[in-house]
Amino acid sequence: MKLYVSVDMEGITGLPDATYVDSSKHNYERGRKLMTDEVNYVIESAIANQASEILVNDSHSKMNNLLVEDLYPDAQLITGDVKPLSMVQGLDSSCDGAIFLGYHARAAQPGVMSHSMTFGVRNFYINDVAVGELGLNAYLAGYYEVPILMVAGDDRVADEAEQLIPNIVTAVVKESISRSAVKTLTPKKAGVLLQNKTEKAIHNLSSAEPLTPPASPTLRIEFANYGQAEWASLMPGTKIEPNSTTVAFKAKDILEAYQAMLVMTELAMRTTFN
């Protein structure tokens, strides 16, 4: 069994705020260590439950956070950017199942450090379904017919996963008090939880189903200000919806929609307020 693991950082045990996930802040090295330890708990459990190949994709910020020297030796790691498929780089039809670890709630929703890709995004929509990073990544996994077996993070992303993906296994390692405060398990206690949930998720593989994306979807991105929408609309095939900061793109499939999202959000980040 080949298992794919996408690892974000905001949903890792014990991390309450940006000082742990921003490489310029004082708690970042602690966050990296906790993130790497958490991945190892999942890998060890997966191997104990018949996973023969494990591919880990570092999916936070510049995507070079995981400490490769401390990673479980039998795993392979994708690290750094630029990646054509960003948070799901390396995921394809050769994977039997995927786990999303350290994930967080989508933008404009309660949850620790909630956001969607960049802080200029208020909402992503696939057709009329509001999604965040979790939803976009799950749909792209579905494009390759790969089921999401488990989502781990705070209680709010667990709620989001359960609403979007039938029969998903969730592992709640912390509860959101506010966007920058949590009630958290200790890392060792969370490790036991993650190992048990990983075992359960793998045992459920035979009944897990991919999240099938819509054919020819329309991607809509609502930005925080009009300047961001203007930059995003420079991509061919896009248009700004009237009287809004929402930019729409009609895609041939979810793969094209996903890559359009990456281009549009990167363009939008060029906006300044000078």
From TrEMBL:
<protein>
    <submittedName>
        <fullName>M55 family metallopeptidase</fullName>
    </submittedName>
</protein>
<dbReference type="Pfam" id="PF04951">
    <property type="entry name" value="Peptidase_M55"/>
</dbReference>
<dbReference type="InterPro" id="IPR007035">
    <property type="entry name" value="Peptidase_M55"/>
</dbReference>
<dbReference type="InterPro" id="IPR036177">
    <property type="entry name" value="Peptidase_M55_sf"/>
</dbReference>
<dbReference type="InterPro" id="IPR027476">
    <property type="entry name" value="DppA_N"/>
</dbReference>
